[in-house]
Amino acid sequence: MSTVIDNAVAPHAAHAASLRQAQDGAAPVSTPLADARSQLAEAIGLLGFSEGTHQMLATPRRELTVAVPLRRDSGETVLFTGYRVQHNFSRGPAKGGLRYAPNVDIDEVRALAMWMTWKCALLDVPYGGAKGGIAIDPREHSKAELERVTRRYTSEILPIIGPERDIPAPDIGTDEQTMAWIMDTYSVNSGYTVPGIVTGKPIALGGSQGRASATSRGVTHIALAALRHAGITPSQATAAVQGFGKVGADAARFLTESGVTVQAVSDQYGAVFNAAGLDIEALAAHVRETGAVIGFSGAEALDGAALLELEVDLLVPAAVEGVLHEGNAARVQAKVIVEGANGPTTPAADGIMRERGILVVPDILANAGGVIVSYFEWVQANQAYWWRVDEVEARLEERMLSAWQHVLGYATSRGLSLRTAATALAVERVAEAHKLRGLYP
């Protein structure tokens, strides 16, 4: 059972309140989709585009909602809902991650797909944006159950994905094993092996060297450049990292290796702090053993929400959407914020922090390392020729710093925030591609 909606915008739904981390009461209502549309509207106004262009860029080209039944190990049957949203194809096939989380809904996926469109355009990667998700908590399921869910979901979305159509990748709650299951399911249905159907695969199945840590490396390249731009020497800088998962853990490690003193990190269970700097390798070992940062002997406990308000030079929100909002933005003390997560800052918080002189590097620039190396992986798969890890990382650094300079120059020359500049640049590129292609028929 599935529902396809082409070129339709459904009413927004309120996003899960659990993503809010305000200290003093509930945060003002804001959703990722509302934030994404607000950012687009600002860029449209700046660029002077027509309302028709605005509606075209605000509306996903294709949406698919599917029922995903699962036969549990106990024999019980349960039903989940899955989504795949393809926001834009003007610059190439759609590209975007697949998220497994209990609070996934269609509006969140729409927002993430839109941000992927801007991210790909900003980094000049020949893709449009897409995103997928299943409303499931992977921690409550065995590996065998997750395999069955993944294969069933893949079978349901099979008609709209492909290496020339839409290429999934890992996101929250999914990993290279998930991608291997998708690749196999798609390949079995095609009758031959199709390594280009996903990125973020295991190396043994054609994955790229450097892909697993690419987002974190990109965040680090941008963070170091932003600190220097703000007049802060990285070897003398302090940092806090929210999230110790796919992005945050390696970002904390790479920042430490670059000389930054990472004083605090958090995960969904709590946070830890050490003014002299955390031993990130020891903390990672503790997390592998216990499953959480709390209880780490080399640090003191800290409230998770308080981490966002620490007096540090650099804050890297690398967890979920909407954690910096109108309710806590006035208390943020970091001088530089580099968004490792997608949509961690609401428009209201953006305005407050800009007035306070805090430099915010937006997600579509800061965390684009993953999509860059995903593109490299796709190219390698299509050529059946794989690059060395030093080649991948050198090309990643070049792309990230080139984009940083481009966005910084655009923002400085026009008196814009980095987010407005980045979004405007990306929107302009997508609109130009759409105009050149024209309308059919």
Strand order of the largest sheet: 10-9-8-7-11-12-13
Annotated CATH homologous superfamily of the domain at 2-6 and 57-205: Leucine Dehydrogenase, chain A, domain 1
Q: Which stretches are low in confidence, meaning pLDDT under 50 for 5 or more residues running?
A: 1-28
Biggest β-sheet strands, sense, barrel: 7 strands, mixed
**Class derived from helix and strand content:** alpha/beta
Work out the strand percent: 15-25%
Do you know the CATH architecture of the domain at 2-6 and 57-205?
Answer: 3-Layer(aba) Sandwich
Q: Which value, in Å, is the CA radius of gyration?
A: 21 Å
Question: Could you give a quick summary of the protein structure above?
Answer:
With 441 residues, the protein is an alpha/beta fold. 41% of the residues lie in helices and 17% in strands. Among the domains are: 2-6 and 57-205, Rossmann fold (3-Layer(aba) Sandwich), CATH 3.40.50.10860; 214-361, Rossmann fold (3-Layer(aba) Sandwich).
Description:
The protein is of the alpha/beta class and 441 residues long. Among the domains are: 2-6 and 57-205, 3-Layer(aba) Sandwich (Rossmann fold); 214-361, NAD(P)-binding Rossmann-like Domain (Rossmann fold, 3-Layer(aba) Sandwich). The chain is built from 13 helices and 13 strands. Strands 10-9-8-7-11-12-13 form a 7-stranded mixed sheet, with helices on both faces. It has a 6-stranded mixed sheet with strand order 1-2-3-5-4-6. The chain starts with a strand and ends with a helix.
